[in-house]
Task: structure prediction
Amino acid sequence: MQATQEPPLVRAARKERVERTPVWFMRQAGRVLPEYRQIRTSHSLLDICRQADLAATVTLQPVERFDVDAAIIFADIITPLLGVGLKVDIVEKVGPVLDEPIRSRADLARLRCLEPEQDLPAMLEALRLVRNALPDEKALIGFAGAPFTLATYLIEGGPSKNYTTTKSLMYSQPDFWHELMTRLSDMIAAYLLAQASAGAQVLQLFDSWVGWLSQRDYCEYVFPYTARIIKAAQTSGVPVIHFATGAGALNGAIMQAAPDVVGLDWRVPLDESWAALGDVAVQGNLDPAVLLAPADVVRDQTRDVMRRAAGRPGHIFNLGHGFLPQTPLDSIFQVIECVREWNGSVGS
Ligand code: CP3
Result:
């Protein structure tokens, strides 16, 4: 047993009853904060990731500004790919771009094993710095991009609309696909375990683009890898959140992969989805675009999410995807205040 109680967000992820609904936001570090943009005037995103003190500062900024219940380590889904020496750039307002995509078995030689302590010392040091600086009641979240989402960037060479190159390779070269997914899964599992050792108390797997697959293809081409990664990450004792966008049709399969928490996007009603999922914690699921609406709409829709969660143990409040870059800070404060008022009004 630990001397101090785990943070409410970690306990909620374990479906324990907590004093108040924990709240944090995907993409809370960077993106919307002026203090982040200030640092970005003199440092690139990847510079920040390479300097542990800067990465720690940016990770802590949203906790200081919004008093959210968790910090998410500042990194990107491409961080482990950079760790193994792949040439990936992050292009402003575009996203990750590779000049030399991975599309054949020969290309796979460029995807060597990740040795987290040697390959990503700054990121692991940033986790340690943040954990030391965070109050005990705030959770530190580590994360990784899931193999399908990473594979789309590796194969397409950058962001894509329909993932057609990815899908056609998946169908036409299954050996290549399974070898790629195996290598990525080993990488991600090692990466998540290293983050837990360095102080992450919750781990989130982001499968941002897997909702573009049919249920059948998800089960054949992705599910075994997701399940394997989650199982490996859970050996750390840390709860694992699985988040995917547009994946309502995949929720049954995602449950089979046995994450501790299922992240719901905004398309699905939280109450109905939770009932269908069954015995698991859920995270979500306000539409990020609602934060661009007038305050009364923001408050109304935040309360609607809380009403649907109905105080059941195991709800972590979040958006249904990350903050949009143009989100006004005022809306973020409104959402947090509303979640906390709701908790106050229904008691605990
Ligand atoms: O709270 C946080 O934002 C923590 C750090 C974080 C970043 N990326 C830093 C970042 C996290 C959790 C991510 C995850 C990520 N990155 C995902 C999965 C989540 C999701 O949104 O679905 C994906 C698909 C990426 C890939 C990526 N990185 C894209 C598509 C972009 C460009 C678009 C944009 O502006 O977000 C990035 C760049 C990036 N990664 C930024 C940040 C703060 C913004 C640009 C910058 O500061 O230069």
